[in-house]
Design brief:
Helices cover 42% and strands 13% of the residues. It has 203 residues and is an alpha/beta fold. It is globular and about 55 Å long. Catalyzes the synthesis of activated sulfate.
Amino acid sequence: MSQSPFTWHEPRISAQERAAIKGHAPAVVWLTGLSGSGKSTLANALEHALHERRCHTFLLDGDNIRHGLNRDLDLSPAGRAENIRRIGEVCRLFADAGLIVITAFVSPYRADRDRVRETVGGGRFLEVHVRAPLETCEQRDPKGLYARARGGEIAGMTGVDAPYEPPAAPELVIDTASRDIPGCTGALLEALAEHGTLPARDA
């Protein structure tokens, strides 16, 4: 195997120095769960709450990423794995810049999420299982995906004919079938404070 022609160049400003001027630590809040569980709604609510606290954030949404960076990938297991791998690299760069990155991806495979944790660095990664029963997700069905999958129009739909592997040891589990959005958002803010991302007064 030939040696890579590329050399890693360390920046003069460290990740710690970038974070020091922001008033909060960097983090990646990884929201995972079935389609319709409430990931995107909760991600937007959390970003709004953090923005009000003058935190530096960026939200990565699954559909948006598929429109640009990862539009060349399909929904096969290999395509899903590469989708999450690329997103993990982007998250690491944003965390190095000192941001709180919020993601909303089904990310159905545990190994892929564990790989992102390793890429980002465990101390900066919060895995959040956004949980709701499949029946509830199908009733919500905001994109009409379950109906299309049940009708045979879509193959490889997570929860229908493709598996979802729930996190084994997430930092937080949020049941959106039993808690409202303000309550879920508050739980996320508390988790960020406990994790050391936010000053305790901002929770």
